[in-house]
Amino acid sequence: MRGTPGAVLQPAMVPHPREEQFTVLVVDDHPLLREAIAARLRSMGAGTVHEAASVAEARARAQANGPCDLAILDLGLPDGSGLDLVTELRQLGWNRLVVLASSDDPYAVRSAFQAGAQAYLLKSASPAVVTDGVKRVLDGGVYADPTVAPLLATGTRVPGTDNTPRELSAREVEVLQLVADGQSNKEIGEALSLSALTVKSHLSRIGRKLGTGDRAQMVALAMRAGVIR
Fold first, then answer.
1. Phi and psi for 195 in degrees, rounded to 5?
2. Interacting residues of 1 by C-beta distance below 8 A, sequence separation 6+
3. One of this protein's Pfam families, by short name (predicted)?
4. What is the pLDDT of residues 38-63, one digit of tens each?
């Protein structure tokens, strides 16, 4: 995480936390990293720092303490998906969620923001960049590690059969990912709460954008672009 002004994205409209102190939940299964993050947050003005080493512990903390001003979560937890935890906390009213990850995989980055994260930071980041990212989120903004920011800047563009980049919507990307996972239109509809006819319409629109109606080719084009995996 090496911070540059270009890493800052458009701010979201969320309330500002208490200026004097803020509360934090840090979720990571590595004690030394978790303690280092907690120490840095306290130096930034965190009044209370809750710690958890797993999805189960994080859920228990969230239930016991309610939404904190900020949560910093590892994606690779021993008992479940950090992305699922981001979604759960978001639904419970946590408005500031920071992902701290080892991977700069384009799919992981986009998935984190789609799940509701406000920042994506790499574990290789310098302490100063972690501070920048946390401050940006506490101020109501959105932040991406400079290494992964270009992935977001290009949106979800997929070169079609004519090599011209086409922009896919978040829903179209979700549909394509499920196609890549081998699901039928009916199964995709059930997963996304859509009718099979709506799924078919999405696929037709994707096909027109990419210049092919072949499901396998659409998936291959999206995979090469790093939009799905």
1. -75, 155
2. 121, 122, 124, 125, 126, 129, 130, 133, 145, 146, 147
3. Response_reg
4. 999 999 999 999 999 999 999 999 99
- Residue 45 is which amino acid? G
User: What does the DSSP 8-state code read for residue 81?
Assistant: E
Q: Which residue has the tokens 């506490």?
A: 138
- Two tokens at 174? 């979700």
Structure tokens at 129: 């960049």
Amino acid at 193: S
b/e map of 154-190 (b: 16 or more CB within 10 Å)?
A: eebebebeeeeebebeeebbbbbbbbbeebebeebbe
Structure tokens at 37: 């993050």
Rounded (5°) CA angle 137-50-113: 35
What are the tens digits of pLDDT across the range 68-117?
999 999 998 999 989 999 999 999 999 999 999 988 877 788 788 878 89
